[in-house]
TrEMBL record:
SUPFAM superfamilies: Dihydrofolate reductase-like
Bacterial bifunctional deaminase-reductase C-terminal domain boundaries: 2-172
Species in which this protein is naturally found: Arthrobacter sedimenti
Protein name per its UniProtKB record: Dihydrofolate reductase family protein
InterPro entries in the cross-refs: DHFR-like_dom_sf, RibDG_C, Riboflavin_Biosynth_HTPR
PANTHER family: 2,5-DIAMINO-6-RIBOSYLAMINO-4(3H)-PYRIMIDINONE 5'-PHOSPHATE REDUCTASE, DIHYDROFOLATE REDUCTASE FAMILY PROTEIN (AFU_ORTHOLOGUE AFUA_8G06820)
Pfam families assigned: RibD_C (PF01872)
Length: 186
């Protein structure tokens, strides 16, 4: 069964962006050894993308008119009116993530669903028991404050470490299964 995955990078102290959505701290690590291979391997299994409106707005501001996920059905959760870039297969939605699970699964087919971000959207999936896996690249930078990795309503049971590897420039990639995901699925 396809998995719902949160593939994300965070600072050592657990933030995915500064309070002003600055990613300069992360972008300074572009091209690190093993990064492209990790991303390409991950993307080869992705059949559908889900992201929050702030993530979409950041992409459009920093990559105007260029959609990085051409050919992959994408959903953007937002309360704002946006226009999709040319050639992008984007559906703009609002509401509870559970309302759209059938659409995500249909579009993903036998491939995985990537919750791109942000942390609040990923937390909605996790709080609903829908998030199967967190693939976290820990970046060796301390931000002190910012947008949290996964601002859930409460603590989770212990996650299961499925894999761990060191990448270039001191980056560590961790793969965690959430408790519902670690149980055998029928």
């Amino acid at each position: 069964m396809p998995r719902i995955q949160y593939f994300v990078a965070a600072s050592l102290d657990g933030f995915i962006a500064t309070t002003t959505d600055d990613l300069g701290w992360l972008l300074q690590f572009d091209g690190f050894e093993g990064g492209a291979e990790s991303y390409n391997d991950f993307m080869s299994g992705v059949g559908c993308i889900v992201m929050g409106g702030e993530t979409f707005a950041w992409l459009m501001e920093h990559e105007p008119r260029k959609w990085p996920y051409t050919g992959t059905p994408s959903y953007v959760f937002t309360h704002h009116e946006y226009r999709a870039p040319d050639g992008a297969d984007i559906t703009f939605v609002r509401g509870d993530v559970q309302e759209f699970m059938a659409d995500f699964r249909r579009d993903a087919g036998d491939r995985n669903i990537w919750v791109v971000g942000g942390g609040s959207l990923a937390a909605q999936f996790a709080d609903a028991g829908l998030l199967d896996e967190i693939i976290l690249s820990v970046i060796p930078v301390v931000l002190g404050a910012g947008k949290r990795l996964l601002p859930m309503k409460g603590p989770t049971p212990a996650l299961e470490l499925a894999a761990c590897r060191t990448l270039g420039r001191g980056i560590v990639e961790l793969r965690y299964l959430l408790p519902a995901a670690s149980a055998p699925q029928a």
